[in-house]
């Protein structure tokens, strides 16, 4: 995440309580959907926030931007930073004199990102949605788990927890190239947990759609309401992970799957 974006986010948080209602609506939207703001036109952003385009322009100028293009450039800059390669991300850790951060500096940075993720999870998790998610997953004959790329370790840890609690499950992975065959045993008596964040893995979206076509009840863990893996049931859990120089935490995701696994076991009487 760029320093400019971090500065803007901090200012937005500091001034939020003093903003007029319409500008608060915009603040909520851009904070929750930074990836989308990088692509939305001013009219699309206004439509999603239920305000006039002129209000969007007023919002940008309130925070010192010349206009919407200048404002959007900040979000595009952030997105480019997240999409950079790992060698490029490592380069951002270098200080102006070309030395690297000390190891304790790295620990501090990653700790802060993880703490931010966990605090956001606590503040934004909808208790009703969480209970609905547990109901769906606990009712499944078998829980199918899908999480690729950065989400794969989280999916595997969820599977490990279910294994220890003797809850039937299946990880849908791509290592063997047999993911399509794995779906053949799935039916409407099962349930599925999809874990996917921007930029969403195309294979995850494809397999998610196949699960929906088979009528399998789905719960999604994702980062915003415009995510392509929101199920038709509308049951999803918002998990937003902070990053440190482009290296994104999985702290909130791990806590969420620990919560789900334990609650599912309680609901099924496995504990």
TrEMBL record:
It holds the Pfam family HTH_6. GO terms for biological process: carbohydrate derivative metabolic process. Residues 6-82 form the HTH rpiR-type domain. Residues 133-270 form the SIS domain. GO terms for molecular function: carbohydrate derivative binding; DNA binding; DNA-binding transcription factor activity. SUPFAM superfamilies: Homeodomain-like (SSF46689), SIS domain (SSF53697). Gene3D superfamilies: Glucose-6-phosphate isomerase like protein, domain 1, Winged helix-like DNA-binding domain superfamily/Winged helix DNA-binding domain. Keywords: DNA-binding, Transcription, Transcription regulation. The keyword Transcription applies. PANTHER family: GLUCOKINASE, TRANSCRIPTIONAL REGULATOR. This is MurR/RpiR family transcriptional regulator. It comes from Gluconobacter japonicus. The lineage of its organism: Bacteria, Pseudomonadati, Pseudomonadota, Alphaproteobacteria, Acetobacterales.
